[in-house]
Design brief:
alpha+beta, hypothetical protein PF0899 fold, three-stranded mixed sheet, three-stranded antiparallel sheet, about 25% helix, elongated, binds zinc ion
Amino acid sequence: MHELTVTEEILRIVKEYAGETRVTDIYLVIGELTSFIDDSIQFYFDLLSPDTAAAGARLHFHRIPTRFRCRQCSGEFAPSDHRWHCPTCGAIGGEVIAGKEFYVESIEVV
Ligand SMILES: [Zn+2]
């Protein structure tokens, strides 16, 4: 999904919950594994929000680090750029249990 689509979705959700009430802050949760870039979302937000109740609202980005669960030993670990091995048994990769999140956590209104 592209940041434009994502930002339109954010504004849709905010409108659904806030209606015409002016929104001051929007808290987003974004997993590290999503390719969404904060600056791009901010860019599209600045472009799309002026005629909405969310005009001028501050975006807050909460990044969720990636976590794997090992398929061999069920141990949980945080992979890094150069290390996707389970630190317990050495198996490569695993099931993604965190890092793919993307949602609006909360909004603040006037
Ligand atoms: Zn393991």
